[in-house]
Amino acid sequence: xxxxxxxxxxxxxxxxxxxxxxxxxxxxxxxxxxxxxxxxxxxxxxxxxxxxxxxxxxxxxxxxxxxxxxxxxxxxxxxxxxxxxxxxxxxxxxxxxxxxxxxxxxxxxxxxxxxxxxxxxxxxxxxxxxxxxxxxxxxxxxxxxxxxxxxxxxxxxxxxxxxxxxxxxxxxxxxxxxxxxxxxxxxxxxxxxxxxxxxxxxxxxxxxxxxxxxxxxxxxxxxxxxxxxxxxxxxxxxxxxxxxxxxxxxxxxxxxxxxxxxxxxxxxxxxxxxxxxxxxxxxxxxxxxxxxxxxxxxxxxxxxxxxxxxxxxxxxxxxxxxxxxxxxxxxxxxxxxxxxxxxxxxxxxxxxxxxxxxxxxxxxxxxxxxxxxxxxxxxxxxxxxxxxxxxxxxxxxxxxxxxxxxxxxxxxxxxxxxxxxxxxxxxxxxxxxxxxxxxxxxxxxxxxxxxxxxxxxxxxxxxxxxxxxxxxxxxxxxxxxxxxxxxxxxxxxxxxxxxxxxxxxxxxxxxxxxxxxxxxxxxxxxxxxxxxxxxxxxxxxxxxxxxxxxxxxxxxxxxxxxxxxxxxxxxxxxxxxxxxxxxx
Length: 584
Fold this sequence. Notes:
This protein is 24% helix and 15% strand. The protein folds into two domains: 12-125 and 207-460, TIM Barrel (Alpha-Beta Barrel), CATH 3.20.20.80; 475-583, Immunoglobulin-like. It is of the alpha/beta class. The chain is built from 16 helices and 23 strands. It is globular and about 80 Å long. The chain has an eight-stranded parallel beta sheet with strand order 11-10-9-5-2-1-13-12.
């Protein structure tokens, strides 16, 4: 495929016209980054699949939301055996998503809106349609991959007992009897990172996209490129359950850090603070922090936070462990609740109104913590997981290889709704590649915009306040405050004068229990609440102004009726499963 651009490559200094806060050193330390799963975001041509042109046309939504950057999932040339994470050409755009001119236009438009652009890079494996693997199947240059003879008298058994993340053996036999390694689908053969040609090729690929103007890379399977010497057996099955809980011979090997250090040196040769973000499943916060040492990548997804149950003690433990580990290496903590590989947290936290109530509260918790935060497309709409999809519509290889036992990733990838009408609720001019539930009409961007009760306006309000005040996002510590059982309360100390409606510290209170809890108002005024603001009765009697009754009530802004003004220290009732930001 041709790699020429239809417009000249612009100098990096012309590409990084960020907002007023975007030009500060270390923009990524407290950035809010919005994940776009390209095939499910916006379809411009009516084929039912999202594309780059559609994504570009919807970028103003991200700017209005208050995001600092956008992360795009793979749009490279691919047979789509695993949603584009099986790449056949790293320098080409798949025709399904557009072409290089569309990528160039998207980067330009994002920068004009003050949004930085992060793209996926997939270094652990290629597609089986990649020219290198085709050569390997033909019998030459197999050293770029992991080919091994089989076990047994006739070599008919896999070289070891490793299992694919998607189920079944991690080895596939080819016509001449050799086996090749694929930790994911058979269509995704693992690269051999001991091969210098592999390392040089990926540095070249990174330069190609950096020259086009992207602001960084989300490194897929950043923990997987190096395998233990000798590829030893693990000794038991169900190995996918061990990922992220212990060090495995195929994941989180120390040798990956040499690769990331080389990439950091490359990124630092470009202006505009280009960054690397690790998708790294590590067994502890301390192991994860190794990926973000000063000479390695800039961020690493905090999956311990994502996987944390709805429990106050567990939440506090994860927050403390995460901050302690990243602070020890001088890196920011990166918080995330959902992505394209997990059940949406609105459903993970509970069914119906319970799940949405908790999801809204968790969002305010996340956005009050120091560091960077990631928002997965649709979570700002309160979208739930789609659990009822026809088998014939599913495309997740985990579902296809697991004989219907998994397939959960399709449910979080259903195209998002933009409008209240149309064949795909504004996703595109026709239908969508995965069917959308009829109930999503009420959850669309159009339906929620301007509605003070909506999850969308809650996110917009939270991100606006986060921009206005330095106590949110910045720094690396929280000051825990005394709180009743089941409640988390912490103070964020201001490091300077805020530009918003208040100056001073901020206190975040989160009630994870299913009943209202009485507590002393820790601040003089409610700035934002995931449910109606708590207020005291005259004379100091606690009063609950929350009305849940099967629906999620409106968020409270600092000027909303019922907000507490000048009542610090008075007793209030904190609504069940709610989070409140207080000016202090």
